Model the fold of this input.
Amino acid sequence: MKRNFSENAAIPSTVDGYKPVMTVNAIDGGSDSMPVKRKFLQVLKFILKFIAWTISVIVLLGLISGFLLFGISKIQDRPISETVNNSSSLDNKATTAAISVEIKGAEKKISGYERQLLSLIPKTPYIIINTSENEFNLYSGSKLIRNGKCSTGSYTILQKSEKEKWIFKTPRGSLRIHGKITSPVWIKPDWAFIEEGLPVPPRNHPSRYEYGSLGDYALSLGDGYLIHGTLYKRLLGMPVTHGCIRMNDEDLEVVYKTLNIGSKVYIY
Amino acid sequence: MNKMKSPQEKQPKKSFIHRRLKAYLVYFIIVIILAAIGYLAYFAWLSPIEKLSILNNTYNPKPYPTNAIDYKSDTALFRIKKEEAFLKSNVTLLANDSIYLVIDLKDSLLSIEIQGVAMHTVKIVRINKSGIFDGMEGPALINQFSSPFQIDSMFATIPKDPYILKIAPEDTIQAQKNVSIPDTARSEPVIFSAYLNRGILLKIGQSEVDKSRSSLKYLMRKRYERTLKFLKSACDFKVPEYQPFISIEIPSKDARAIYRALPRNGFIAIRLE
Done:
């Protein structure tokens, strides 16, 4: 085992005049601090080289992946200049005449399309319901009469068993008002009891009839879906219903009085 | 002592060869990398050009009339032809009862419509589109946009229908525990990509900065998929297929409403700038 002693002078001589072996070894190697320094430098060099290589590799990989992920798109998304110009084959006068014919033809078609599109906007009042934001806009022609918060389907899937499940979602698309009801009574379906953890009563059982919970008015959209009032006004603007559209009393009254049977209801 | 060389003296010779070899290896690697980048850059440059030629061939009238007018040669004609194409596409959509999307790049408007009635209209904050549309020949461009596009597939950072599964409670006590109010304060970043027929990618994203950075994962995944597809084609020595795109930014709540309202295979009418 070789040990380096730089403080060998401090080690006392033995009686017979010899210094300990370790000390001789240290003298033999000249100044003992040199290999330590060299080793230290070597280690430092190695560390620096390692860092330099690592940085180079990272930079190179970064450049490659950067090019692959972003450079390609940059090259591809440059504007491409026009390649063909066929008008050179025609003389100027003929071209101008042909262009004006094309323009006239196109203008005629455009006015036809515009008329067709305009004719589709309902002349009678209609309502638009946004199920994402839980908002409604009531229109008469192109004039906005009223807008406000409402509540729509919660997107809950109530599962009783593999076969029995219900999805509480407001249907999207173009619907119509099928009927108008004052002082509506909610005839609770089976899921209303299942959701509350109650036993399902037989049909026409008194417990199925709930009075006052739908507000003063209801407008039927078909398939059991209604626009009605609510007792839970603080939940307006949230998706909490079983598929129906809930409104506050004032909005519901305006909607009820404005819309007629057959009025359009657009839900998105 | 003199005959025996210390390891430090022997080292320079070995290290000299070693260093030369290392240098050659480094040069070789650099050359290979540069060649690969050059090869990929060439393909990246070539793919939209090839796509442009494919699009022109596909959508130009056949046979191409010799005295045909290039719509682009006259600004008024080109503008009116674009208008006609858009309205024609819009009128075609009236035939079906489903919700469709109308993108007006000219007036920077985006709306969800049904049977010609705009249910939700929003001002577009930012538009970015492929340069390929500017490079297309007039008649081809008009033809391509004169009928509605149909969505082939859609991907988004938010679920299309945010379903919540609720198991029916056993009793009223359990039912009381199940009652919950939706968290309306929670807002996820909204970005969605719709791959349309006729090879166009429509990207709609929120204009607000996503502070949560959660959309970055989605964007990087999409970019990675695109890069991988590109590399696969390049490895097969095939020109990678270029995907022309239209990228739109709108407020997040509008983007969410539009994404959820649009049917999975819905239709889109686009009005050119």
